[in-house]
Amino acid sequence: MLLNGLVYIITHAELLAFDRREAIYDRIQLPQHVIDADVIGGAVYMYVGKPSFVMTQPLPVEIAAIRGSYVQIIEDGLTDLGQEFRVAYEHSSDEPLASSIIADHSD
Question: Which domain holds residue 35?
Answer without folding.
Answer: 1-54
